[in-house]
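R.M. (postdoc): so does anyone remember the format we settled on? I'll just put the structure tokens first.
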């Protein structure tokens, strides 16, 4: 179903008068790049249960299996390129202050599109940390080797087990990133883009923005648990609708 012109015009008008705009992104933003989403028909978890792979318990039980999954995902993402949604957000942010991007994605595609200062709630596929938090190691370190040289990889400092520096179910998010997201949610326009909005605390930032009085927008081809709570739901792919919105906002 085509997105109604009225709805688009309303969003562009709000964006034009906004001093601060925050965009919360999820896996759907990277779908057009070929990165599988988590849930849904083609989701990463159609054949794996999240609790089998994305929890500290799963890692403790079988680090090799979990690392094989992450190694496969790293290889897959390394072969992908940022799409129009990533590019539009990076170009918009580069025009000056006012746009903040919070992402749940661990793929690094926002950064590869040139976006700086992205708030990363769930860590990065490209960073590792020491499973036993040894005193010598930094909190995390970058490792972009594809495929990994060794599975499971070792901590270069204590030679014990390394883990992906991502946030698994039941783990706390980085308080610094949460504080930044919390501040960014107090904005004039808050947009949730390409996320199923089922994972907390990320999904809760929309309500914080609403409580602050933000105008709220969802961009997703499918309905989600927050669709009924936003001011405007644009049922379309992120890579087309963000382009349309920004062309309306900054006509060349
Ligand atoms: C398109 C599109 C296109 C397709 N364009 N769109 C409150 C209530 C209930 C539960 C909880 C709660 N608070 C906490 C919990 C527990 C839990 C949770 O949320 N559980 C729910 C699932 C029930 N949360 C946690 O455990 C969090 N930790 C925590 O709360 O800690 C508390 C604590 C405090 C102090 C000490 C200790 C603990 C941690 C959550 C971590 C989530 N981690 C993952 C894995 C990251 C690593 C990895 O990648 O392997 O993050 S789970 C996974 O889901 C990943 C994603 O970032 C996240 C969200 O998924 P996302 O992005 O929404 O993807 P999909 O696939 O679900 O949706 C894609 C969407 O795109 C779909 O809607 C499509 O329609 C759409 N789409 N193509 C636009 N072209
Ligand atoms: Zn270590």
């Amino acid at each position: 179903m085509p997105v109604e012109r009225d709805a688009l015009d309303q969003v562009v008008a709000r964006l034009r008068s906004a001093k601060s705009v925050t965009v919360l992104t999820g896996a759907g933003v990277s779908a057009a790049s070929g990165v599988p989403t988590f849930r849904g028909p083609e989701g990463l978890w159609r054949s794996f249960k999240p609790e089998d792979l994305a929890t500290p318990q799963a890692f403790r039980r079988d680090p090799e299996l979990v690392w094989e999954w992450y190694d496969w995902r790293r290889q897959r993402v390394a072969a992908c390129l940022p799409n129009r949604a990533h590019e539009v957000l990076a170009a918009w942010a580069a025009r000056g202050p006012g746009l903040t991007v919070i992402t749940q994605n661990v793929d690094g595609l926002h950064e590869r599109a040139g976006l700086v200062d992205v708030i990363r709630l769930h860590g990065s596929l490209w960073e590792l940390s020491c499973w036993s938090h040894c005193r010598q190691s930094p909190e995390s370190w970058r490792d972009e080797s594809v495929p990994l040289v060794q599975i499971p990889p070792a901590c270069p400092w204590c030679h014990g087990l390394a883990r992906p520096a991502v946030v698994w179910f039941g783990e706390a998010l980085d308080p610094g990133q949460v504080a930044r997201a919390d501040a960014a949610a107090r904005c004039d326009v808050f947009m949730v883009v390409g996320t199923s909005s089922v994972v907390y605390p990320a999904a809760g930032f929309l309500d914080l923005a609403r409580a602050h009085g933000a105008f709220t927008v969802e961009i997703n081809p499918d309905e989600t648990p927050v669709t009924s709570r936003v001011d405007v739901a644009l049922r379309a792919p992120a890579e087309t609708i963000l382009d349309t919105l920004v062309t309306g906002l900054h006509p060349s």
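R.M.: ...and that's the designed sequence above, right after the tokens. Also worth knowing: The chain has a mean pLDDT of 95. The longest strand covers residues 123-130.
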